[in-house]
Amino acid sequence: MSSRTSRGIAYERLPCEDSIDTACEGSLDSDVASQNSIYDEFPDRERIEQSLLRKVDLRMSILVLIYILNYIDRNNAAAARLRGFEDDLHLEGQQFNTILSILYVGYTLMQVPSNMYLNKIGRPSIYLPTCMAIWGLISVLTGTAKGFLGALCTRFFLGFVEAAFFPGALFLLSKWYKRRELGQRTAILTCGIMISNAFGSLLASAILDGMDGIMGIAAWRWLFYIEGFMTICVAICAIFILPDFPATITSSSWLTVEEQALAQLRMEEDVGIDDETECSKGGESGLKQAFSDWKVWWLAFAMAILNVLLSFNAFFPTLSATLGYSSTVSLLLCSPPWLFATRVAFSMSRHSDAKGERFGHIMIPLLVGIAGFMMAMATMKTAVRYLSLFLMAQSYTAFVVYWAWVSNSIPHPTSKRAVALAFINAFSSLGNIAGSYIWPKSWGPSYWNSYAICIGCGAVCMIMSWIFRQHLMRLNKEIEARNIEGGLSKDFTYLL
Asked: For a disulfide at 263, which of 94, 203, 243, 246, Cβ 3.0-4.6 Å?
């Protein structure tokens, strides 16, 4: 058995590293011995780990800002609709809905190849900001559209490039944080959706109200120009802030040698497999493993159904406008529900991490959201319908916790996790495409049929989640019976 040096620490080579066709069988004793030798190198582990997490958290925080801009660039068409977007482009019938939905076609096609490529190159600090700068430029070009075809093309390519970010960000988080830490970090990231809905509406209101006619340009065009330019500026900064993977950092000015070593050891301890010595056959194997695991398909269907329920997000300014106020006031009224939803999502996800439980923290927001849909269906009274918007918005908490559950349920190998996260997000985008067509103007202002569809999707999602939880419970019993599953840590259990 040969020895080697990794992360600046010498230890014995595991048997599984000599054959990519073995799944680390028989290597548990050597693995434990190797970990014990590494433990000796960290006499002050708690202090080093706290310093590591603090540094990683600070750098990862820019992902929230990127996600905010990602969703602002994706949803600014809904705000532009209130100030002449449809009229200036001479849109008719379902053409506006098609412009919204076409984004998710490109978004769906690109995600799996993108994450496979990211896993291969191991340089998210370069790849993700580059994609961000490109989608910012495409957003700017949307403001130059003269008709339906021009807007359709820019929206398609916008989705094509934006596809790199969310699954890539989830994959990046899963390479730095342990399972019990991942829920809160995923929540902070996905809260970017709700923050973008809150402050994106305020920004859109300021631009649409103050820029109309300047230099002879319509306000909705300024909306795309300004928000696209903001995205490009942040992308340039992100190149110098985002970290690469723990195993692919060649030289680091922000981590000590001990912190780099501990970053990799933590992941090895969490699931029992070191990313660097993982018994994997590369991207092709990860693709096959992901598509042959029924859990991946089940989660993809559940998330697609959930996205149909959450489709009200793209039409939130329209729903706010049914309260009867001006376009400016309608946009301003969008912010409080999303600020409330952000607070709920952060609290629930933090509690979910603390309890190590996912299912209940998904069910409660969905039930409250369904109550909001029912309230909106029952009356046209302004106060009640506005309250219903708060209850609807907080249902995004289920989306936040669900993504943490997805990451927890596909722990290894990393090549499989990269494909699985991308595929689930890509497939779930089909729900966004379908959701773009369940809010036609002809169903307004009550949108009774739209709310009924959302309620039905919520019920299906809850049933699928319960079945998935029962399956994980059976897997945990099997793991407990034989102590280890396919190289996973002896202490590993799926979070329910």
From this structure: 246
Distance CA 34, CA 55 (A): 26
Residue 269, token pair as written in the block: 């301890």
pLDDT tens digit sequence for 57-101: 999 999 989 988 988 888 788 788 878 888 888 888 888 888 888
**Exposure string for 285-303, b = 16+ CB within 10 A, e = fewer:** bbbebbeeeebbbbbbbbb
Report field, pTM of the whole predicted structure over 0.85: no
pLDDT at 484 over 60: no
* 80-93 CB burial, b ≥16 within 10 A, e <16: bbbbebbeebebee
Q: Which of 317, 301, 302 is nearest to 439 (CA)?
A: 317
User: For the residues 442-471, what does the mean pLDDT come to?
Assistant: 94
Distances (CA, A) of 408 to 44, 174, 494: 28, 9, 7
Say if residues 403 and 396 touch (Cβ distance below 8 Å): no
